[in-house]
Amino acid sequence: MDKSNVKRRGVMLFNINIRPHHAHRIYAKTTNENGHTHMIKGFTRNVNGNSFDKHVHRFQGITTFENGHNHRFYGVTGPAIPLPGGAHYHKIEERTYFNYDEPLEIKHGGVWYANEERSKHDHRFKGRTYDRIGVDPFFYESNKDNESNSLTSFK
Questions:
Q1: Confidence at 144, pLDDT banded by 50, 70, 90
Q2: 1 band by pLDDT with thresholds 50, 70 and 90
Q3: N or C: which end of the chain has fewer CB within 10 A?
């Protein structure tokens, strides 16, 4: 096994050249603006990466519906932060897009804007990703006995 591409964490070795595809769950609570908060829930976009390559993920979504409205949000996570055992997480810190303080009366979904100037607000949020998801189980199964290609090998 070529030791130049391996990092030791406890009793496990990690080949830093292996970059399996995966996504993460995101969950955060927004700041309280105008007497209400929203929840940020969803998933990051899928990328190839491991705990040591500093990869990032894009994410986007719509907050929970509170106080008669929701907000759109978009962002990019911070780089991968290794955890014991080979997993990793990412920090998230962003803001939502603006929405009106007093929601418009609309009959259908979608994004609507008023013709007149109206007061609006946004929210900040920060948190982290959870659970590496969407990982190909066949990748790990087919490589578990091949020490030079496996993500982890126990010594």
A1: very low
A2: very low
A3: C
Digit-coded pLDDT (tens) for 33-45: 999 999 999 999 9
Distance separating alpha carbons of residues 28 and 65, to the nearest angstrom: 14
Backbone angles phi, psi at 80, to 5 degrees: -60, 135
pLDDT, the chain, mean = 78
Encoded tokens for 68: 């008669």
SS3 sequence of the chain: CCHHHEEEECCEEEECCCCCEEEEEEEEEECCECCECCEEEEEECCEECCCCCCCCCEEEEECCCECCECCEEEEECCCCEECCCCCEECEEEEEECCEECCCCCCCCCCCCCCCCCCCEECCEEEEEEEEEECCCHHHHHHHCCCCCCCCEEEC
In this structure, are residues 14 and 50 in contact, taking their beta carbons and an 8 Å threshold? yes
β partners of residue 44: 59
What is the mean predicted confidence (pLDDT) over 98-111? 71
